[in-house]
Amino acid sequence: MRKLSMDELNRKTVDEFKQSEKIPVIAVLENIRSAYNVGSVFRTADAFLLEAIYITGYTCTPPHKEIKKTALGAEDSVTWRHFANAAEAITDLQQQGYRVFAVEQAENSYALQNVDFKTDDKVAVIFGNEVTGVEQTTIEQCEGCIEIPQLGMKHSLNIATAAGVVLWELVRKRLLNNG
To answer: Is the CATH code 3.40.225.10 the one for domain 21-148+155-178?
Structure first.
């Protein structure tokens, strides 16, 4: 076994990425305090060829030096839009036919491993503030909540980590179904 060289990774250029067919998943960031977390989600969205990122509230937007530091150029490849609040983003998503879910620990939430979307389902997942999570008023506009099972004592993940886990699971299942 040997590590692959950069040439062997078959990386897309920004133009190739933009022209590629995307996986119909949108990550929505609600009032994220850390630009580093925002940049990490951009990088994850690029890695999984997601449709877009919706940025809401006071979450910072590109160009921003801390986003750039963690996104490593993904802020240039991934489509993004800013909305004054999550309600506006949710309305836009629903008008486009997206099923919208909050990623939150809540009553009657769906365990991530049990979520089973059809391959052609358009799905948006909302990630909330590092301290307060997804706002209750936002949750009330969603079809439901997706919860990452956590077995330790903290029951709390950094938003960038939570986004990586949830987005990979949504993409992984689509890859399996496309077999």
So the answer is: no
